[in-house]
Amino acid sequence: MKKxxxxxxxxxxxxxxxxxxxxxxxxxxxxxxRLHMTQPPLTMAIQQLxxxxxxxxxxxxxxxxxxxxxxxxxxxxxxxxxxxxxxxxDLARAVGQGSIGHLRLGFVSTxxxxxxxxxxxxxxxEHPSVRVTLRESTTxxxxxxxxxxxxxxxFVLHAPGMPPDGLPNLTVRxxxxxxxxxxxHPLVRARLTRKTLLNQPLVIFPREIAPSLYDSLLAxxxxxxxxxxxxxxxxxxxxxxxxxxxxxxxxWVPEVVxxxxxxxxxxxxxxxxxxxxxxxxxxxLVWRHDASAVVRRFVEFIRNDL
Length: 306
Hints:
- By secondary structure, the chain is an alpha/beta fold.
- The chain has helices at residues 13-25, 28-34, 39-53, 69-97, 109-112, 116-126, 139-147, 194-198, 211-223, 237-245, 272-275, 293-305, and strands at 58-60, 65-67, 101-107, 130-136, 153-158, 169-182, 201-204, 229-233, 251-254, 265-268, 280-287.
- The strands form three sheets. Strands 3, 4, 5, 6, 9, 10 and 11 form a seven-stranded mixed β-sheet that branches.
- α1 crosses α2 and α1 (13-25) crosses α4.
- It is rod-shaped, with a radius of gyration of 33 Å.
């Protein structure tokens, strides 16, 4: 005779299936037939289950089997439990394929003016079971969050060809930088020359938030024998544009920022004669080496849309 498991051992799924079969048929013979087993082992299994629970689940007579109050109370919870158990393999496969899960995504503000809203809209439509948590933050904050496991992937801003070291990456946008000028600035209407634009007071982001881009901008000045006259620093591009509108200086911003229509600000791209070696920037999607299936699916989604 098979030894009954200890009372404190977990109850196996099989025992609950046997209980439910008997609860739904109220007949040991028909329940055993449904379970593809003989009646005596089923009778013993139900007895062991009742002993484990310390309560009778069925009232038995020679002619009938009826649920006790305890048994009746268990029918629906057990039915739901077994339904959930049946879905577990599909759930595991879905998680493994990245169609279910959680994506913690960081992004710099500039990509929000570009394709990010459309990407998110389509990705959510195609993957409704993936929960996307967004966090707008600068490149340095994203890299720290990625390192500490608080973020899964992020869109970061950097100099051309210089994505952050040590992380898988995918360049999603490359664009020139343009000048944001106060509306009353003489350069709004005057011919742009390298000498005049490099001698303007400059509003710029701090180096620590995007070192490679900051260094490339300064290198552009030094390459042409100038040093930027930095009058103010600000973290967000929107704030930089606002400071320009206040007349604190001019600013280099990614071309996509021209979609930010701020009263008192005019954007000007470099003329063809100056554009060849003008400042540029790139945006890349970066992610952790131990990326989940959801992250890998998102990366492939972005890659396929480029």
